[in-house]
Amino acid sequence: MIDLLGYGAFFMSSALIFGLIALGLNLQWGQTGLFNVGIAGFVAIGAYTSAILTTPETADRIGGFDWPILAGWLAAALVTAAAAALTGFATLRLKSDYLAITTFGVAVVVQLVALNAQSLTGGPFGVAFIPRPFASLQDQPVLFNFINLGVIAAVTVAVYLALEHLARSPWGRVLKALREDERAAISLGKSAKSYRIQAFAAGGAVMGLAGAVQAHFIGFIAPNGYLPTLTFQVWAMLMVGGSGSNRGAILGSVVVWAIWVGAGAFSAAVVPGDWQARAASLQIVAIGVMLCLILLWRPQGFFGPQGFFGKRRS
Amino acid sequence: MNLQFIVDGLISGSLIGLGAIGITLTYSILRFSNFAHGDFMAWGAYGTLSVVAAIGALVGTTAPIGALSFGWPLILAAIAGMIMTACLALLLDWLLFARLRDKGQSIIVVMASFGASMALRSLLEFIFTSSPTYFSRGIQMAIPIGLGIRITPDQMVMLATTIVLVTAMHLFMSRSQTGREMRAYSQNPALARVVGINVDRVVRATWIIGAALACAAGVMVGILVQIRPLMGLDLLLPMFAAAILGGIGSVPGAVLGGLIIGLSEAAAVQLIGAEWRAAIAFAILMAVLLVRPMGLFGRAER
Amino acid sequence: MSIPDVPILDVRGLIAGYEPGLSIVKGASIHADEKEIVVILGPNGAGKSSLIKAIAGLVPITGGEVLLDGRDITHGAAHLRVRQGLAFVPQTENIFPLMTVEENLRVAGGVLQRGEVQARIDETYTMFPDLARQRKLAAGSLSGGQRQMLAVGRALIVHPRVLMLDEPSAGLSPKFVEMVFARLNEIRRAGLTIVLVEQNARAALAIGDRAYVLVEGREAHEGRAATLWEDPVVAELYLGKRRHA
User: Fold this and answer.
1) What CATH number corresponds to the domain at position B218?
2) To bridge B38 with a disulfide, which of A274, B89, B107, B236 should be the other Cys (CB 3.0-4.6 Å)?
3) Does residue C4 lie within any of the structural domains?
4) Is B302 a domain residue?
């Protein structure tokens, strides 16, 4: 029972971290219409930034500045925002496809740097000994799990409230107008581009923060944690939840993560050992098909204001 | 500097260019960036591999042609693979892309192609596992051709095949009625309908050509390097960069863009090391987007 | 084999618009007889352009019908209407700018036999000698008047029975307007039916046989071109002509 509770806390922590990433994506896509295919790259930038700044000094790697965790998280958000702003600056005056292609490229390059810039990122082995919040409680696993969940939930709620506030602010209303009315966007001209860059950077900051939170939650990061599959999971989460809705982003993340973990546990129990890897690919196929089906039949998702489970707003 | 990089760059560049033709046609005619295009390459390669195995099971082992690493079964199988890949693309269009295109939001189609790409690639991993496989495990002797450059017979034949395919493509686009209709449609879809062009036929032709060329490129990668489910994903960024560098919609531009990227990658491998190869396409892409987003042969977007 | 009292183009109660529930054409009925030039006039926003585009198959039709020579073509695809003999020349962007003049003509000949296409192109060159001289040039480099000639020539490649034009005089100098309308008159004499949407009422009515005035998505007046021009109410309200000018 205690184990189950502990696992429950662990599951919710992982799901809420995805929820955080999905909140960032919702600001970019759901609220501004900017298509990001490089989520994994931006999350990785945040994770590595905080890991390099907060780990204790190590001999074989630049970094290990032993910063406080919160400082690492702040830096992660800022560095990722800068990277996103740069990406937006280069592409947001062009057709939306160019942003998609460029973000895809960002993810490829970040992966490459993580793998090859060994002296900074630890190469394929990644960065270990990332300090965990409240590490002194680590010998009481259940309590520790719940404290972790509490920290992650607090960050998620804070980001959620901030994003809700932003969406209702004049700034958020401009974004909405830009997305819904192309003519308004054209009449705003240059400042339309700057609004889009701001939204893309702010969404990037949330993704970077999520990456950092995740790194400190697991205590260890490596390049293979930031493959295109991650990007794809987050997209599925937002689409299931209902793009445009912050609440949908979080609920969608919990549901899709439950399906993902459940399918993994099911195939681990049922599928014989040498077929495990293959079954894992089938899991991705299923999510891919699901994403396409949602796009075809339920583009508004399930948990947003217009979803099955949401109250219809006037 | 060792001049060998020219041969390596021309070869990988022509493979990128062949793939980029499909990307540029899909973008200018169907109006979306197809993230599943790389997976057409991988599916084409595996489809061809399966047909080679089937032919082998039927007629037994066959001798390779001359100094090449493969025999006639591979050539037949590649043609069958091109047909299969084209059918796959048409099926995907019918199931997914056409329906979303009718709704009118092109970026939703891009997202669907991203989802389809993940599903297609993982399906390959499910069927064939993620470990690499080969058309032939034989090792070919590279022939010195002067200036310290060496080239294998396979490489020579692949270069020649690319030249033939690209020339055929160019003649098709400029001389055939279907090619003219495709160009007309890409310039002005509404006017194309008004002048009696059957839009469905143009869409079908675009998928068939793009997928068949992707399969050809995939088979060539399989012959020269190896076959992996991720082979298409790895080439996706260079192919996009080539299409944009050449100017979206331009077939010769896509090929030239591919060659420039292939040569730059090969040169960079010598200068900064093979592990940074994949960053070159990104650097070129960013440079093009910042300096001349319409590409070498492109025109400004309306 | 058309029966004399059946109009070659018969549009009945047409309802059409880009978005469902937002009709721009609201029950318009017009017809055109063989070898007739029919002019459609009306104030801005009356739906003239949408009406002609709906007939061509470019604007979704939600009600009414379009008969070509007695055949129902209401819901056919745009390219099939061309093949059935209903050609359309849009107002703007009516050429493929990156293709040569000759390619612009050739691309419209997809349904013809191979040998036929060249003959039809030569025919067009005889009709518009300017185009013959510029056959190898990119169509985008032509002047406004030449583009209009090319668009008309291309529409004629398939030998349609009805030629519809959306404001062929828009943006042309008076000299070119005169030339375009003279050509249209010649084309009619050769046996074609022409349906013309125009802002330039004077020039259009000068060559037109019959005219409709479209108001708020349906026809409000119909009459001989000459008498419509004289009708004081119509003239003042919709043709922009002052009563005592």
Assistant:
1) 1.10.3470
2) B236
3) no
4) no
Take residue B106 and report the two structure tokens written for it.
């092109």
- Count of domains observed in chain C: 1
With respect to residue A273, please indicate whether it lies within any of the assigned structural domains.
no
Nearest-by-CA chain C residue for B188? C96
Total CB pairs under 8 A between chain A and B: 128
Q: What is the CATH number of the domain that holds C24?
A: 3.40.50.300
In the predicted structure, residue A253 carries a pLDDT above the cut 90: yes
Domain carrying residue A25: 2-226
Q: How many domains does chain A have?
A: 1
Q: DSSP H helical segments within chain B, as ranges?
A: 4-25, 37-59, 72-92, 98-103, 106-128, 153-175, 177-187, 189-194, 199-224, 231-246, 251-272, 277-291
What is the domain extent for residue B100?
4-291
The DSSP output letter for C50 is H
- Select from A194, A182, A242, A175 the least CA-distant residue to A93: A194
Which H/E stretch holds residue C61?
Answer: strand C61-68
The mean pLDDT of chain C is 86
Cβ–Cβ < 8 Å for A240, A293: no
Which tokens belong to A212?
Answer: 């950092």
Interface confidence, given as ipTM, is 0.88
pLDDT for C237 equals 63
In a domain, C2, yes or no: no
A98 touches chain B (CB under 8 A): yes
Determine the pLDDT at residue A186.
65
- Provide the chain A residues 273-302 that lie in CB contact (below 8 A) with chain B: 277-279, 281-285, 287-289, 291-292, 295-296, 299
Domain range enclosing C44: 9-238
Put simply, the answer to whether A97 touches B107 (Cβ < 8 Å) is yes
pLDDT at residue C240 in the model: 58
- Tell me which chain B residues have a C-beta less than 8 angstroms from the C-beta of A101: 33, 237, 240, 244, 285
> Minimal CA–CA distance to C40: which of C236, C215, C196?
C196
- The answer to the question of residue A101 being in a domain is yes
Indicate the DSSP class of residue B142.
Answer: P
Chain B residue set in contact with A, beta carbons under 8 Å: 27, 32-33, 35, 96, 99-100, 106-108, 110-112, 114-123, 125-126, 129-130, 233, 236-237, 240-241, 244, 275-276, 278-279, 281-282, 285-286, 289-290, 293, 301
How many Cβ atoms from other residues are within 10 Å of residue B286's Cβ?
19
Number of domains in chain B: 1
The secondary structure of C139-174 as a DSSP string is GGGS-HHHHHHHHHHHHHTT--SEEEEE-TTTT--H
Instruction: Look at residue C132 and tell me if it is in a domain.
Output: yes
In a domain, B299, yes or no: no
C25 falls within a domain: yes
Rounded to whole angstroms, how far apart are CA atoms C186 and B224? 64
Interface test with B, best of C96, C118, C157 (most B CBs within 10 A): C96
Q: What average pLDDT does range B182-186 have in this prediction? A: 93
Torsion angle, CA of B256/B260/B265/B268, rounded to 10 degrees? 170
Give the sign of the dihedral formed by CA A238, CA A240, CA A245, CA A247: negative
pLDDT digits (tens, 9 = 90+) for B159-176: 999 999 999 999 999 999
The 10 Å Cβ neighbour count of residue B66 is 8
